[in-house]
Amino acid sequence: MITLGKYNKLTILEKTENGLILKDNTNEKVLLPTKYCPKKYELKSVIEVFIYHDNKGKKIATTQKPKLERYQFALLQVVTLTKVGAFLNWGLDKDLLVPFGEQKEDMIEGRWYVVYLDVDESTNRLFASSYIEKQLQNINITVKEGQEVELLVYQKTDLGYVVIINNEHKGLVYKNEVFTDINIGDALKGYVKKIREDKNIDISLQPIGYRKFNDVNCNLILTKLSENNRFLPISDKSSPDKIYDSLGISKKAFKKAIGFLYKQKVISIEENGIKLLSTKNNNQ
For 7-62, CATH number? Predict the structure, then answer.
């Protein structure tokens, strides 16, 4: 079955005046309109397309890339307000509707909101919702302490930043453990610090196994290393401008911090940058 709101790999069946007819392995068919067709293709070859719906609620294919898929979350901007709801730019020519009943607060044109993509089973139409927490569950936890996870920041509170974990759970990054700029809608890598008895999940932006340092620049560098696959292409030989552009600190502060981290055997200083070492000799 061709799945609405998802990428599907379909076979090119035939060319018509309106575009290409595609089919899946159950022989369900869908149109890929001419304006989305690749310049070169072969009949019976496989093409990957995103499936959404036209104005009549009928499935239709596109080679455009949406900013989220069904059952996923993303930060999107309101482009139009109408009598049926707010429409968001999600990367397709046809904007995405947030019905009034799916708006946690009245949306304002031009503003950005974290939303969830779902489908109305009765009308077979995709829609977005800003009721984020009802789509998350912390009853059946699928992550473990120390595990690296994907995060999406969706709310700021007095305690810190509330995040979506692996598109499924709710977690919290405490503000006193944040050493870099974070904004609503940021997609980050993080680590499960603690799963509490009440099923709340504490998240760290630094790999578990590294203790926190008193120096804010050391923690900033550790966070940036974590976000960039344990490597930063800057060193004590880099220009002050490059260091500031990367970290927002002076070269003098950078050299002091990496010197300390190096002596603590937390990082290695390579010819073209700095690298985060194994956690086996470091304690939280």
Answer: 2.40.50.140
| CATH level 2 (architecture), domain 73-133 | Beta Barrel (2.40)
**Sequence-separated (6 or more) residues with CB below 8 Å from residue 56:** none
Q: Is the CB of residue 138 less than 8 Å from the CB of residue 112?
A: no
CATH architecture of 148-204: Beta Barrel (2.40)
Query: Beta strand 112-120 with 125-129: parallel, antiparallel or unpaired?
Result: antiparallel
pLDDT per residue as tens, the chain (284 positions): 999 999 999 999 999 999 999 999 999 999 999 999 999 999 999 999 999 998 888 999 999 999 999 999 999 999 999 999 999 999 999 999 999 999 999 999 999 999 999 999 888 899 999 999 999 999 999 999 989 999 999 999 999 999 999 999 999 999 988 877 889 999 998 999 999 999 999 999 887 766 666 678 888 898 888 888 889 999 888 999 999 999 999 999 899 989 988 888 888 988 889 998 876 445 44
